[in-house]
C-alpha cells in the first residue's frame, strides 16, 4: 500500500487542506505545534477508524474547533490500483466509503478486504515507531533491554505482548472465573437462578433438594461401604485361610458343608431384583397418591347450584327482561310526572268554572250556537266587519298555543310549555273581551232556541255569552281526561308486566327492586359460569390423573412381571421369601469362600502369622468379628442401593410432574446467549493462542532472514564499524569490524538506537511480502548527528524500494541536507 494524496476536511487544526506524497521517502518537517502529530493521527484514523473518545482516547479524536466538518480522504495505491478511502463523522469509528478507479463504491467491508488482517494495534506494532520508543530503550535494565531487542528482532516489537494483553482483556471483559460483574458471569448466575426457579415451580422443591441431598449422602455412604468391603474382604480371606490351617480343619469342614451354588442368582440379578422391588413400591405409592387426589377432587368439587346449567338461558332471559322493565320503569316515571302536570292543569280548568263541565261542541254545533247568539244578519255582518272574523283568528291562536303546550310537555321543555299556555290564554282573553264588546251592540236573539241548545249540550248552568268562549277549556278538559286515561292504562299495563315478571322470578328474588333483581341475576349467572368452569377444570384434571394412573398401572404390571421372573429363577414367590433367600445366599457365599481358602497350603508366612494367635478361639473371634463386619457392610450396601433407587425414582417422579415450558424456554434462550458469549470468549482466547503461535512461527522461520537484513542496515548506519549481530544465551551481541564483541548495554545511546532501528526496519523488509504498508516514523533520529542522519536517510531510501516511508521531524537541521521535504510551516503560511 502507498499513500499518494491526502485531503483533510477537518481534523484538529487542519481543515480543507491537501497533501501530495509524491516523494519516497516522504520527509515532513514542521516545528512543534505545526500539526505533524495531527497529520500522522489522521492517516491512521482514516485507515482504521476515529478514536471513540472514551477513557484515555477522549483527547485523541482531534475534533476541529473552527469548522463543523470532521474527516477527510486518502488516495492509496494497492497492487497497481488506486482507491479513494473517505471517512467522515459517524458511529463506530466514523462513516467510511471506498471508491475504486472504475467509480465503484463500497464501505467498511471493502476496506477490510483491502487491509486484510491488519488493524490499528497491529499496524502501530509493526510499521510505526518514534523517538518515544527509542527513548524507552535507555530506561530498560540489561535483561529488559536484551529481551526488548530480541522480541523486536524475532517478531517486530514488544507491542506484540500488548496485543496479546488487549485480546486477554477483551476476553476478561466477558468472563472471569471469580468475577461477578462480567456478562458471562452474570448470565451463568442468572442461569443458576432460573434453574432454582424451575425446581421451585415443580411444587416440591424442598423435597427435591432433600432427595438430592439424600441421594448424594447415600452415594457417599455406598462408596465408603464398598471401599471398606474391599478392604475387609482380603482380611476375611486371610483369617479364613489361617483357620483352614489348624489341625482340626477336617472337623470344621465336616460341620460346614456348603450346598452347590449352581441354582443361585448372579449379583447383577440380585441387584436388579432389589431395584425392581423399590420401583414397585414407589409406583404403588404414586398410585395411592393419585387415588387420593381423585377423592379430594370429588370431595372439593363445586356443590350443585340452585340453578343448573340448563336454567342458565332462563336466567339470561330474565336478565334481559329486567333490563327492558327498567327502561319501561324509567318511562313510566317520566309519564307519571307528566300526568301530575296534566292533573294540575285539569284541576285549574274545573276550578275556574265551579260546575261540572260538559263535552266540547263540534265545529257544526259551534256554528249553530254562533247563529243563535247572533240572529240579526246585519249585526253579524257588522261584527264581522268590525272584528275582522275574530273567531277564526282566535281559533288559530288557541290551536297554535295548544300545539306548543303539547310539544313542550312531550319534549319535557318547560319554556315551550309556558309559551304555549300563555299564547292560548291570551287568545281566549282577547276573544272574551271582543265578545263583550259585541254584546254591547243591540242584538236580537232567540231565547228559547238558545235555552234549548244549552239544555241539549249541558250548558244551561253557564251564561250563554260564555258558551263559545269556554269551548277552548272544554276541548282542553276533554284532551286532558283522555291523556290521563291513557297514562293510567299504560301504568296498569306496566304493573301487569311487572307482576308477571315477578311471578317468574325465583322466590328469593321476588318483591325486590328491578336494580336489585338485575344485580342478583348477574351474580347467579356469574356463579353458574364459575361452576361450569370449575367442573370443566376438575374434569380435565381427573382425565389427566386417569391417564397417569393407567400409565402407572402399565409400568407396575411390567415391573412386577420382571421381578416375579427373577423370583421364579430363585425359587421364591414373594418379597419375604426373597429376603430369606438373600440371607441364605450371603451365608453360602461366605462358606464357599472359606472352603476355597482352606485348600491353600501352609507357607512360612502363614506360620509367622499364626504364631500371633494364642489359640483357636482367639482366631475364631477375629474371624467372627470380621465376618460380622462384612455382613453388616453387605447389608449396608444392599440397603443403600435400595435407598438410592428409591431416591432416583422419587426424583424422576418430581421432574416429570408439572409443566415448566415458560421457565425452561427462558432458560433455553439464556443458554443460547451463554453459548454465543462463550464462543466470543473462546475467540479471544484462540486469538491469544494464535498470536503466540504466530510469534513462535515467525521467530523460527523468519528470524535468520531478519538478522541478516538487520546486519546490513546496522553496517550501513554505523559506516561498517559493526558487521555482525548475534543472539546468544547471554543476550544480543554485536561484533565490531575488528572482531571485538560488545553486549548491547555496552553500546552508546546513539549506537543502541541505530541497532534498534536496524532490527525494526529489517523486520519490516522481511515481512513486506506478507504485509506491505507505509512505514511511519515520528522524530526517530533526534540523537543523530548530521552524518548519522544522512546515513539514516540513505537507509530510508533503501527501505523505500519495497515500502513507502513517511518521516515526520521537528529538527530544522533536516533542511541543511540535500533532500526534498514537505514543510508544514510553509503550508500554513500559504
Structure description:
The chain has 830 residues and is an alpha/beta fold. It contains 26 helices and 14 strands. Strands 2-1-4-5-6-7 form a six-stranded antiparallel beta sheet. It has a five-stranded parallel beta sheet with strand order 8-12-13-3-14, with helices on both faces. Strands 9-10-11 form a three-stranded antiparallel beta sheet, covered by helices on one side. The protein is flat. 21% of the residues are buried. Residues 145-150, 152-158, 248-259, 375-388 and 439-444 have low confidence and may be disordered.
- The helical percent reads 55-70%
* Beta-strand proportion: 5-15%
Shape: flat
Distance between the termini: 30 Å
Describe the biggest sheet? 6 strands, antiparallel
Cα radius of gyration in angstroms: 59 Å
The averaged pLDDT comes out at 77
Uncertain regions spanning at least 5 consecutive residues? 145-150, 152-158, 248-259, 375-388, 439-444
Q: What oligomeric assembly is this protein in?
A: single chain
Extended strand count: 14
Strand order of the largest sheet: 2-1-4-5-6-7
Q: How many alpha or pi helices?
A: 26
> What structural category arises from helix and sheet content?
alpha/beta
